[in-house]
Amino acid sequence: MKKKTKAKKMHTIIYLLFTIFIILSLMYIINFFLIRQEAKKQSDLLNATEIYDEKATKEVVQNELEDEEEILPTEELKQETERMLKVNGLREENQDIVGWLEIENTNINYPVLQGTDNHYYMTHNYKKEKSKNGSIFLNADYNWNIPSNNLLMYGHNLGNGMMFQELLKYEKESFYLEHPTIRFTTPEEDAEYEIISVFKSRVYYKSEKNVFRYYYFINSESEEEYNQFIKNAKNASLYPIDATATYGNQLITLSTCSYYVEDGRFAVVGRKIEK
Predict the structure, then answer these.
(1) Which domains does the chain have, with CATH numbers?
(2) Confidence at residue 70, expressed as pLDDT on a 0 to 100 scale
(3) Which of 99, 109, 110, 201 can pair with 265 through a Cys bridge, CB separation 3.0 to 4.6 Å?
(4) 168: which DSSP letter?
């Protein structure tokens, strides 16, 4: 009788554990698809936004062509102008949208926000709604009036492949060779950045000396400081990259969490391709 009671209790426990497992699994799956759906909405936002008409675009293109001493192909200029106009249109919904970031053939294709601090857009989307995904955001200290040397951007490393998780694929040189450029579009320009360094890092303690705190570099106070940043970034790179930057080149740095160590970070640095 005792054996039957014990077996019955064991069956009950197993049943309860199985039920809990099923419920948690369903919650995870539902949450996964909700997060993925929200991220997809952000990545589709640029193409879905129609904030200009064909006539207005043609007028912009014609005016720019008349002002250009060296005339560019109309289709190329029109494409660039349309993208810039779309980004400008998005700002009507949220003035914190400063541009659009894209790495071709990856999931990294999102609006970039800049808040008054570096915390708000970790937990809010471009509509200022609470979101586990957060947003891709530019360091609050970047000064557009100068402008600063380095567009330092952050994004979550999420398990669903969204936001900046794919940035970690740059750990493999083969991925870099297939994706060597970063595109960043603002209302003023549609620019491409050539990657010059890919490295792992972490948040260092204040007591640690002679370490590369890349996350503090936004605007150099001197040519020496700028060159030191480039030297440190090149030395830290996981593999050799021929491309480099010289003083005066605009930089972009994409940064996300990496869990290879406590407070680990992963960064990709690029320099603007001058046209």
Answers:
(1) 95-272 (2.40.260.10)
(2) 45
(3) 201
(4) G
CA atoms within 13 A on the CB side of 49: 21
CA-closest candidate to residue 100, choices 188, 185, 187, 39: 185
Instruction: Report whether the peptide linkage leading into residue 147 is cis, meaning its omega lies within 30 degrees of zero.
Output: yes
Instruction: Please compute the mean of the pLDDT values over residues 128-143 and round it to a whole number.
Output: 96
The predicted structure's pLDDT at residue 68? 42
What is the residue-wise DSSP string for 214-233?
A: GGG-SS-SSHHHHHHHHHHH
Alpha helices in the chain (DSSP H): 2-48, 54-67, 74-90, 173-178, 223-236
pLDDT at 132 over 60: yes
Find, among 108, 43, 126, 47, the residue nearest to 82 by Cα.
Answer: 47
pLDDT (tens digit, 9 = 90+) per residue, 228-254? 999 999 999 999 999 999 999 999 999
End-to-end CA distance of the chain: 86
